[in-house]
C-alpha cells in the first residue's frame, strides 16, 4: 500500500483503497462494515481499524465501482472520506489534527450528530414526562415523539445493516424492543430505552476518541515547517517538502523536523516524545536524530535521511494502526462466540415472550415485555468490546514507553512467556566491541592488523567494525580487497595483495590449519577474561590473534533480575566461544549456550518452545530466523527498519529492562481483558435472572448493556495510566 495514499494501483482494474469512516467507534460497527464490504464482488483483503476509524481493502473496480461501496457505508449511517497523506500538524496545544485532502479535523464531541440526537431525545423525553404529569390521560402519547425519533434513526441503520448481511445488529435488537414496547403501551419505557441507548453510543464514541488521541498526538510531534540550509542561508519551508540529502538547521529549543544524522554541531537532544527515553542524549557529528525530538542546547545541522512520509513517527503510527487492525486470539474467539450467541439469544427471548402465554396461559403483555427486556440484556456489545478496548490501551501505553508491539496476538503471547532467549552482541552487550589485544604470530602486528582490516572492510558485523576502528586509530591504510565472502558464524575471507586473508573463529581456523601452542594458550587466557578472539590467517596459515571485548549494557543485569522476579527463565544464545559466553553470563546472572551457529540457535529455540512459550530478543538483523521461530520475537533497536519490521515487538530504547516492562504491560493487559469479560458476562447473568422473574424491566435491561459497555470501556482506559514498576521503570 502506498504510504499514506488513498489509492494504490494493484494490477489492471484492481486498486487498494483506504477510507476514514466517521462514527465507527466499536467492534460491532467494524463488523457491520467488514460484512457489508465483503458482500461486494471483487472486494478482498478487508482490514478494519475502529480505533483509527480506518477501512482498507483491495477492490476490482471492473466488478464493483468504489462509489457503490462508499454509498453502502453511508447507508449504514457512517461518514466516509478517502484517507490522504498525514499532514504534519502544529505542535501548539489545542491545534487540530487534519488529514491532508480529506480536511478531517478533530471536532468537539458535543458538536457531533450523536450528541445532538441524544440532546433532542432527552429533551423530548423530559417534555413527555412533564406533559404526562400535567395531563395524565395523555401519558401514553406524550412519550411517543422521543421513542419514534430514536426508532427512526436507529431503525434505518438496523434495516441497512440487515440488508448488508448483519441482521442481528445491536440497532436491530434495540429497534425490535422499542417497537414491541410501543405496541404493548409501554411508551415511557420505549422513550427511556432509545435515550439510554443513544447516550451509550455517545459514550462509546467519546471513549474511542480518547483512545485515538495518543496516535493523533504522535502526528502532532513533527513541526509543520523546517529551516532548510541553502547556500549558507536557512530558509523556512514546509517539513513535508524535505527530501533525502537536504540540510536542515535545528536551533536550540526547536523540534527536529525530519529523521536524519548530524552533519555539523553538538547538542543534547530530548528523544522522550518519540522513544520514551527520559535522559537527553548527546548528539555529535554522524549521530542519528529522530523527527519530533527536541534540541536542547547547541545548534545542529541535520542531513535528512528519510522523507516525511517515512520518518520514525510516521512508521510508528503505521505500525500501531496495523497492530490495532490485527485481532488478538481472545478477540477472535469472542467474535466467533458472539456470532453464535446473538441469534440463540434472540430465539430464547422470543420463546420467553410467547411460550408462557401459549402453554401456561400466562398474561401476554407481561411476557412480551419480559421477552423484549431479555432481548436487550442479550446484546453482546460489552463482551465484543472487552478485548479490543484493553488491547488498544495496552498498545498505546507501550508506544509512549518506546515498546512497539505488532498486534493484540503478540501482546497476549508476551504475557504468557516462561523463558526469554537473548542474543549476546548488541542485545545484552552494547554492540560496540573494542580491540583489546593484538598478537602477531609472524611478521609485525601492524601488517597483520592491516590485512585483517582489509578483509573486514565493508563488514557490518560488530567484530569487523572493531577491527576497522583499531586500524583507523593506528593510521593503517586499507589495502584493496576483492572476492570477499562471509561464512556465517565462522569467518570472513577476501583476497588482499593476491593472497587469501581470513578472519575467523579459533575453531574454524583450527579446521584449516594447526594453531601454534603459544597461540592456543593465549586464546584460552583471553577467552577466560570474557574476550572474543579471532584468528587472522594468510592462505590458510595463522598469522595472528585479535582479542575484542564487548561490555554488557548498563541495565542488562537489572533486566535479567526483573525477569527472574517474574518467574521467567533467561538464557543467552551466542555464537561466541563458551568461555567468553560464560564470563558474560556470570556477570549478568543467566544461563548460556555458546558456540552456536544460526541453525543451532533455531534448534535451541525449538527445544525451549517445546516446554513453554518463549521469547527471543535480538538485534533484528543476524537473529531474524530465531526471532521468527520463537513464540514471540522482540527486536532491540532505535527505530531501525529491521527492528520495526522483522519481529513481533521492538524496543526502541534498546534497554534490556524493557523486556520485563513489556511482560509486565502484557500481563496487566491480560488481567484487564479478564476483568472486562467478567464485567460483561456478570452483569448479563444478573439481569438475565432479574428480567425473567420480572424484577427488572426494559430500561434496566438497556442500562445493563449500556452500563456494561461503559464499564468495560472505562476499565480499559484505566490501562492508559499503567505505571511501569521496579527496574523496568528506570531502565
UniProtKB/TrEMBL annotation:
Keyword match Oxidoreductase: no
Pfam annotation, one family: Hydrolase
Cited SUPFAM superfamilies: Calcium ATPase, transduction domain A, Calcium ATPase, transmembrane domain M, HAD-like, HMA, heavy metal-associated domain
Enzyme class: translocase
Domain of life from the UniProt record: Bacteria
Comp. bias intervals (Acidic residues): 261-271
Spans through the membrane: 117-139, 176-203, 339-360, 372-397, 677-695
Keyword Translocase among record annotations: yes
Catalytic activity from the UniProt record: Zn(2+)(in) + ATP + H2O = Zn(2+)(out) + ADP + phosphate + H(+)
Localization per record: Cell membrane
Principal subcellular localization: membrane
UniProt-listed Enzyme Commission number(s): 7.2.2.12
Region (Disordered) residue spans: 258-277
One cellular component (GO) term of this entry: plasma membrane
Topology relative to the membrane: Multi-pass membrane protein
Keywords: ATP-binding, Cell membrane, Hydrolase, Membrane, Metal-binding, Nucleotide-binding, Phosphoprotein, Translocase, Transmembrane, Transmembrane helix
MF GO annotations: ATP binding; ATP hydrolysis activity; cadmium ion transmembrane transporter activity; metal ion binding; P-type zinc transporter activity
Record domain HMA: where: 15-81
Family, as annotated: Belongs to the cation transport ATPase (P-type) (TC 3.A.3) family. Type IB subfamily.
Protein name: P-type Zn(2+) transporter
Gene expressing this chain: cadA
